[in-house]
Specification:
With 106 residues, the chain is an all-alpha fold. The chain is built from 3 helices and no strands.
Length: 106
């Protein structure tokens, strides 16, 4: 069950990265017109880079699970990854909310 959960998390995280980049790209914001599109792209890039780091963390935990190194006594990597993703999800929600407001207004 650990391995399936981690593989599912990897798929969902990479899908979320693609969706966030796709939404930001299809709005066709001109970065040189105003500061708002530049700030939104900066937030998007910040979130995507950190999500990629989170995907790397999940991949590491998946590899440990595959090779039998992720045990209940040695699962600090999993807890650290979970804590990282908790704060990253908060960042992603804020970024997506700002992007949705920009799309609705503009």
């Amino acid at each position: 069950p650990c391995l399936l959960t981690l593989i599912g998390a990897l798929l969902m995280a990479t899908g979320g990265i693609r969706a966030l980049l796709n939404d930001s790209w299809t709005v066709s914001m001109m970065l040189t017109e105003q500061t708002t599109p530049a700030v939104i792209w900066l937030l998007t890039a910040w979130t995507v880079v950190h999500a990629m780091l989170g995907v790397l963390m999940i991949a590491y935990c998946t590899a440990r699970c595959l090779f039998g190194r992720l045990e209940s006594a040695h699962d600090a990597h999993m807890h650290n990854s979970l804590l990282y993703w908790t704060f990253l999800l908060f960042t992603a929600w804020i970024t997506i909310a700002i992007l949705m407001v920009y799309i609705a207004i503009g």
